[in-house]
Amino acid sequence: MTSKDGGVYVVGAGLAGLRCARRLHEKGVAATVLEAGDGVGGRVRTDRVEDFLLDRGFQVLLTAYPEATEALDYRELELHPFYPGAMIRTGGRFVTVADPFRRRWDGLRTALAPVGGLGDKLKVAKLRRRVTAGSLEELFARPETTTREALAADGFSDTIVDRFFRPLFGGVLLDHELGTSSRMFEFVYRMFALGDVAIPTRGMGAIAEQLAGGLPPGCVRLGQRVTAVGDGGVTLADGERLPARAVVVATDGPTASELLGGEPAAPGSVAASCLYFAADRAPVDEPVIVLDGDGQGPVNNLCVPSAVAPTYAPPGAALISAAVIDRPGLPKGPDLEAAVLGQLADWFGSGVVAWRHLKTYHIPHAQPAQPPGTLDPPERPVRLRPGLYVCGDHRDNASINGALASGRRTAEVVLEDL
After folding, report:
1. pLDDT, tens digit (0-9, with 9 covering 90-100), for 25-38
2. What are the chain's domains?
3. Is the pTM of this model over 0.90?
């Protein structure tokens, strides 16, 4: 490649962009990543606030993700797993539901938990067998409906759907009504069944930092906001024009659509908030996700990240994460904080008033909406035309796996064209 040809530019240093750039460099094609922000990771970043590690929104790594196992060094990330199950708040008390295939000795507690009848729990085993059978390609080709409709068709009662499936998978899919494609639900359930739910020692942002660390020095340029993308180059906010042989737009879906003049169309967005609190004592000492089985409050799920990975909080302190899925009628701003604390005081008692609010993250585009039809085909085209490409979770599916897969697929298409 000569200088007059221009370079290869990747717009956006999220997981998809970094994966794409890594793949290109591995195949001998130098690529420069242009990132508008002050760090890598996009939506998967971690901030340090008063020696606490705050992920930008409630996020976890499902270790069974096939793209993650290929792209990441799990040993270097020093992953800490959650308990394979959940603690559910229902009827004024907490009950524990475990994965009976991984915690057989907890099976009795699970069988007696008031989150559905015995028939429901037997159907869970049948569902697990189905989602783990066959290939991922076959899973994403299955007949599609909403998650709630699929669970009803499987014969699950409203009780187990509302007390278990809604808060657990609604929290992962950011979908309080379970209107997400049943294909995506089955994919996530498969990942839960085959691996751990984990967070890295240095926070979720360590995933992007590991990807960026495998690139040559200087090829990630921070603070470089791209304002226009066209044939043959990109334009930066300061007016500089960079001629390009190939441009990959690796931003979130709405930003990509704006930069590319509406092609592809912007995906629908689902919003979420995450509130972090510091406390002298953890309300839950176990590395477990706590679910709102009653569905009454703003908090969908809660965890104590420092009980999973102690590095998330300084010695002698606990970090509490409360996740809220956006939906009509939710309070905003300080009113949301007050409503969250009110709900958690009902759960854990008056000691909650001593918790100190650290930060609230509100993410308008936490991930693309995925109602039935959006995953058909499951892998959308990444080549707009030779020399111009787009990648991100909106081209595959709304997951870390989808972002990484999209970046890899895009790099392969760029290499083919070059």
Report:
1. 999 999 999 999 99
2. 3-45+205-267+380-417 (3.50.50.60), 46-80+198-203+269-368 (3.90.660.20), 83-195 (no CATH)
3. yes
